TrEMBL record:
This is Histidine phosphatase family protein. Gene3D superfamilies: Phosphoglycerate mutase-like. It comes from Rufibacter glacialis.
Amino acid sequence: MPNNAPAIFLIRHARPLVNRNGFFSKAEAAQYLQDYNEAAVEEVKERSEHLPLDQIQKVFCSTLPRAKATAVMLFGPEVELIEDATFREFENRIWGLPLGKLPLRWWQVTSRALWLLGLNQKDIESFKQAKVRAAQAAQHLAQEAESNGIAVLVAHGFLNEFIKRALRREGWQVVVEGGRGFVGVTKLEKASA
């Protein structure tokens, strides 16, 4: 890939400061989701060597506090931060009968799996709607990168994965795979025609 190829950086937020230890009732698991959406995040101790900090003047981010806080920690208060609800994480709601306490992971995986199957989407965005939103986000980032050479997004693991998939369908190639870990950086480039 040439160095002047348009680039998109997808960054997952830092680890939220919320307790996930122990066993949770259905109500406690639902409260955890709410707390997670409102939580502060751990301090980012080091930035990825893949981020061209001297070229980044504008950063897109989710409207959720964990993404905004991570963006400010990574790029400083002087960067132009563009908050957009298009970049919010895919919604989730806890599913299940309130019959005791289970590990939080059980509540989360079961609820998300049922949502993916279309069985747990009452009062929230469906999986189909979320994929459309991710494709729109990908298109927006691609236009930004093609106009300005670079687009940077600080958002969420699930959303970033589906943005990446949409970009790959449009000819973008992953040149750095940061995974879905906290503050993971994925870089995509598009070769000039």
